[in-house]
Amino acid sequence: MIGKTIKELEIGDTAEFSKTVSESDIYQFAGITGDFNPAHMNEEYAKKTFFKTRIAHGMLSAGFISTTIGTKLPGTGSIYISQTLSFLAPVRIGDTITARVEVIEIMAGKNRVRLKTVCVNQQGTQVLDGEAVVSPPKRPRK
Predict the structure, then answer these.
(1) Local confidence band at 60 (pLDDT 50, 70, 90 cut-offs)
(2) What are the angstrom distances between the C-alpha of 43 and each of 20, 23, 57?
């Protein structure tokens, strides 16, 4: 199943993906990326920080945006071109993060769409804000 092509997208189209962040997610992300910053890994260290507890890697939340783009909108076959990110609030173990993308510009001649990208936690607090440029999939030639 291929995602939406440029001709199937409209300004205002949206999609979401939600996930509850577990301690295991943080350990796995650290193992995959090599980011063992003690703010994520060591509770005793984290108690002395501004956040007073461990926080998830910011890029873990950004990964939920990638999931939304690659599986929902535009969907399977999409290629990331660029992404801007502003990290607005911490994500803690047990937070449920919802990534949301919205089509805000269609550049049909270049087969590109610009998406507003946000992540919010279970209380509705925005934890991440940004924009992505994506190349939607094309239908295979017959």
Answers:
(1) very high
(2) 19, 11, 14
